[in-house]
Amino acid sequence: MPAVDLKKRYAEDGYVIIPGLIEGEYRSNLESACERVIAKTRNGSWLHRRTVGKQFPPYGQDNPDSWGIQHLMHPDLKEPIFVQWYTSPKLLGVATELLGCSEEDLQMELLNLLINPESHDFALRWHRDDIREDATAEEELKALNIWHYGVPRTEAQRKLSSGQIPENPLDMPGAIQITLQPGETVFYNSNILHCATYKSDTRRATLHGCMGDAKGGASRARNILQHGLRWMKGEDFFQTLPNSNANRMLEKLISLSDSSEQRGAVEYSLQN
Ligand SMILES: O=C(O)CCC(=O)C(=O)O
C-alpha cells in the first residue's frame, strides 16, 4: 500500500494491516524463537508472563497457565532475533510513516508474545490501553486528545465496556473482528476500544509490541513503564543491540524512565 494510503487508513480506522512484513528466513527464525520461549514459559523457567486470570499488569503468578510472554528482548532469554526484528528497517519504516516522525524520534518500548493458554480459555475485556473504563465522557475525551485518536464511547458502548468480560464481543455497537493470517502484521492505536480472545484449543502465537514518538514525552510513561523495564537499563541488554537505531531508541526509553523515576512511583494504567 502506498505510504499515503497507509497513513489515511490508520488515521481513519485506527489500525492498518500489512501483509508480508515478516518474510522468508526472518519469519522461520522468529517462529523457532517463539517456540522456544513458549516452551520456557510453559515449563515455568520464564516467569515474566501474562498469567491467566489477570488482565493487565501486575500479572503475578497466581495461575500456572499463561496467555502471554513478557520482555521478549530480555537478554536472559538469549533470543537476539527479537530485538533485531523490533529494530529492523522494515518495521521502523512503517512505524515512522504511521507516527509521522523520523527514526531519530522513535522510542524503544515493549515486545511480547501472545499465546493460547494450555488448559483455560481466556479473554481480554473491551479496553483502551491507557484510559480507564470508568473515565467520564469528559475525561475520556481529554485523554483521547493526548493520544490523537478516537471519540468517547456512546452510552451503549460504555455499558458493554465497563470492566466485564464480553459474552460475545460482537455485541459491541460498531465492533469489527480482525483475523490475521500467518505473517500479516496489524498496526493499531492502542487507545482504540479493543478486546481479544485466547482459546486453549486453538494455537496462537502473536508478536505484540509497541513503540512511540519520544516527542510525546511523559504521556507514554505510565503505559510503558508499568510493565517493569528496569532490565533495559542494564549493560547485558545494551550488548545485544544490533544497530545504531536500537541504541538511539533505547536512549530515549532510558531518559523517559529516568525522568519518570524522579517524579515518583510508576502507576498502573488499568485495574485488574
Ligand atoms: O490479543 C490481542 O491481540 C490484544 C492484546 C491487548 O489488547 C493488550 O495487550 O492490551
TrEMBL record:
SUPFAM superfamilies: Clavaminate synthase-like. It comes from the Eukaryota. This is Phytanoyl-CoA dioxygenase family protein.
